[in-house]
Design goal:
Layout: E1 11-21, E2 29-34, E3 55-58, E4 82-83, E5 94-95, H1 105-108, E6 116-119, E7 121-124, H2 125-132, H3 136-142, E8 145-149, H4 157-169, E9 173-178, H5 184-190, E10 196-200, H6 206-213, H7 218-230, E11 235-242, H8 250-260, E12 266-273, H9 279-284, H10 299-312, E13 335-340, H11 348-361, E14 365-369, H12 374-377, E15 387-389, H13 392-396, E16 417-418, E17 424-425, H14 428-437, E18 442-447, H15 449-460, E19 465-469, H16 485-506, E20 509-514, H17 521-529, E21 534-536, E22 542-543, H18 544-554, E23 562-567, E24 571-573, E25 591-593, H19 599-608, E26 616-620, H20 622-625, H21 632-650, E27 656-661, E28 664-669, H22 685-692
Parallel strand pairs: 2-8, 8-9, 9-10, 10-11, 11-12, 13-14, 13-18, 18-19, 19-27, 20-23, 20-26, 21-23, 22-24
Antiparallel strand pairs: 1-2, 1-7, 3-6, 4-5, 14-15, 16-17, 24-25, 27-28
């Protein structure tokens, strides 16, 4: 059948275009979601796809209120469409949805905070295909292409047929997702351009189908059977959205199998366990979700029903390509994203390489999110989109010795995101919704202490996550070594060696500040390696007059130089207290905890001047220690952490942190790492070694 006339000018209503998909057809795909649906499934997770026209959404969390904004309360917005209730606790706007139906993209764009947005827009066939063509090389490599979904894509038959025909002309694989509740003439128009049709068998009993879906299934089943027989070259994949108490039972699965098994071009049957990640969309549209009491089916139930399917298809032990499209079932993760928390540490690319290679061997689709969650929340800020396909081509060309290709998160907590007016809003639900909309099954996050706490909170809200510890200070609890520590330690030792040589040549005392706000691992280990005279760190208080006395004992005409290593968070005491440069003292009289780069070194140098012979000068190496190339240890550890995170997901675990307990890579629950700091024990071997070398460690020893 020929494609429609004037194809390039033909328009359709597009809800969303999503790249780098792997669930809905072979290879890596671009999914084009069209507006409009002829069913009313009570469990629908995409209510924004039902209406055939673009429609307004309102996110009250982003609204700054009548006093701060109030744009929507004035013309050209429809009178009465937006209002602030009398006596409300705040002045946030409410919506009269009946009067707001006339709002379009032009009006929504006037909202300065983004609280008003449109679901759906008109696009031409050429505009859509231009987006699809962006990933042409990925389709060639993976055998992927375009998938039309919805809503119900065949409710726009001319537009769908034109898109699919255009994709075929470009050599792309084509697929559609459909419930097939459309006139047969629509099916005849679309299916000639389809390679794979994924179709829903929601219910087999007509009365139950009408109760839960809004219509009986007579036309749907007739269309399925006729399609199997009329289009023998199309691959058909049956699907069932599993909802416990409605259709997640053996009777339904066997009835579907009895319907599809006589037809040899039905190549598979997939289960889509029910989830609740679309609930927030109902509020955005001013609607109420009706299926509030239903929960995700258990792992045991899904595995039991999958075993029945495997038996019917003559499989044993499960087919590798069979999909259980849900979150959290062991071994079923198919689309995994990786992101990086705030603060650069060397070795990030090694983590991406390890995760991508391990995931690729399992047939998973691996993605990267740019700049923490920014690429997810604000993809329009990135010319190539906020998600990066961790494809074999990209991974093979990554340099493990360079910075991370994904960037890093700004210091923003999605639970307390700034609005620009001095207040914070909670974007955690939006993060979860965006991940669900992107069909991300699990998230691997490379984070430090604050990031671990954020991911633990997101996990409690339903996110399936595995964290990788990164910290140049090695202060993440429950792991022996964090990513980036060895590289920072190596750089710090190199800088201290130079400081030692400079102090010796100039016959001065160098006070060198190194990273370590909460733990003294770098200060202690680097200080030992560089032959320091003293190491000051957060674990042991230091009375500065004691430090001066120890240095005076070591200084002599033959050795008039010295090296003092100070961690950023060293506990410094002065007795009696004296004024120094920097912020006011805190805590008890005489106590001074000096935070901030350079302030600890300056405070110690200021106290030593006049108390010891010779000139004292401060140095800061923290900024250099946080950069540079990763060591061989961090390259290896990064690969192991990335691959280990994939193995944890493969084993069906989440809500954990990958941990290094030499010589093994294992995992611990996030609760064991969150809110804790890995400090240097007072009885550690490094402490005893420093003492044996005559290094002063503070007042406590």
């Amino acid at each position: 059948m020929s494609s429609p006339v004037n194809v390039s000018a033909l328009t359709g209503t597009v809800l969303n275009i999503q790249r780098y998909c792997s669930h809905d057809g072979p290879g890596i795909r671009t999914n084009v979601f069209l507006k409009g649906c002829s069913l009313r499934c009570k469990w629908c997770g995409n209510p924004e796809s039902i209406a055939p026209k673009p429609e307004l959404s309102y996110d009250a969390r982003k609204c700054t209120g009548r006093e701060a904004c109030g744009v929507c309360l004035k013309p050209p917005f429809p009178e009465g469409a937006f209002f602030v209730p009398e006596g409300a606790d705040d002045d946030k706007v409410k919506v009269n949805w009946h009067l707001a139906t006339g709002c379009d993209q032009a009006l929504a764009s006037l909202c300065p905070t983004g609280a008003l947005e449109m679901f759906g827009k008109k696009m031409t066939v050429d505009e859509v295909l231009a987006e699809v063509e962006k990933d042409e090389s990925i389709y060639r490599t993976s055998g992927g292409g375009i998938t039309l979904s919805g809503g119900e894509c065949m409710l726009q038959p001319d537009f769908s047929a034109a898109l699919l025909a255009g994709a075929h002309e470009r050599g792309f694989n084509t697929a559609i997702e459909t419930a097939c509740n459309v006139p047969w003439r629509f099916v005849e128009k679309v299916l000639p351009h389809v390679d794979t049709m994924l179709h829903d068998h929601k219910m087999t009993i007509p009365e139950r189908h009408k109760k839960w879906v809004g219509v009986d299934n007579k036309r749907i089943l007739e269309n399925f059977k006729k399609a199997y027989e009329t289009f023998p070259d199309v691959d058909f994949i049956a699907r069932t959205p599993l909802i416990p108490g409605i259709n997640a039972d053996e009777e339904h699965i066997r009835a579907v199998l009895a319907f599809i098994r006589p037809h040899k071009n039905v190549i598979d049957y997939e289960l889509l366990p029910y989830h609740r990640f679309g609930l927030g969309k109902y509020e955005l549209l001013g609607e109420v979700y009706e299926l509030d009491d239903y929960k995700t089916p258990s792992d045991d139930l899904v595995k039991h029903l999958q075993a029945i399917i495997d038996e019917a298809f003559g499989r044993t032990g499960g087919k590798v390509g069979t999909m259980i499209k849900t979150l959290g079932h062991a071994g079923t993760h198919r689309r995994v994203a990786v992101n990086v928390g705030s603060g650069f540490v060397p070795g990030m690319n090694s983590v991406l390489m390890g995760a991508a290679l391990a995931g690729g061997r399992l047939g998973w689709e691996m993605l990267g999110i740019r700049d923490g969650f920014e690429g997810l929340l604000h993809p329009d800020r990135y010319p190539d989109g906020g998600l990066v396909a961790l494809s074999p081509e990209l991974v093979e060309n990554l340099d493990p010795a360079t910075g991370g290709v994904l960037g890093q998160a700004p210091r923003v907590d999605p639970f307390h995101a700034p609005t620009g007016d001095g207040e914070d809003i909670d974007l955690s639900d939006e993060v979860l919704q965006k991940l669900q909309a992107a069909h991300v099954d699990a998230l691997v996050s490379v984070v430090g202490g604050q990031g671990l706490a954020i991911l633990a909170k997101l996990h409690r809200k339903g996110l399936h996550t595995v964290c990788i510890p990164r910290s140049i200070e090695n202060d993440v609890a429950s792991t022996a070594v964090s990513l980036g520590f060895n590289s920072a330690l190596s750089t710090t030792i190199e800088m201290l060696n130079k400081a030692y040589q400079a102090a010796r040549s100039a016959r001065k005392i160098a006070v060198v500040e190194v990273p370590g706000e909460q733990a003294g691992w770098i200060a202690l280990q680097a200080g030992i390696a560089a032959r320091a005279d003293a190491v000051l760190m957060p674990e042991i208080p230091c009375r500065l007059r004691h430090l001066a006395a120890r240095l005076k004992d070591k200084l002599s005409p033959r050795r008039p130089w010295g090296l003092v290593v100070v961690a950023e968070g060293a506990q410094l005491f002065d007795d009696p207290p004296q004024p120094v440069n920097g912020p006011p003292s805190t805590g008890e009289p005489g106590e001074r905890v000096v935070p901030g780069a350079g302030q600890a070194a300056e405070a110690v140098a200021a106290r030593l001047r006049g108390r010891v012979e010779g000139e004292v000068f401060p140095l800061v190496v923290g900024p250099w220690a946080r950069g540079g190339n990763p060591t061989a240890v961090d390259q290896q550890l990064g690969m192991a952490y990335g691959a280990g995170a994939v193995q944890v997901l493969k084993a069906g675990r989440n809500g954990v942190m990958v941990a290094f307990a030499p010589p093994d890579i294992g995992f611990v629950p996030l609760a064991e790492a969150v809110g804790k700091v890995r400090t240097v024990p007072h009885d550690s071997e490094f402490m005893r070694l420093a003492q044996s070398l005559g290094i002063y460690l503070g007042t406590g020893l």
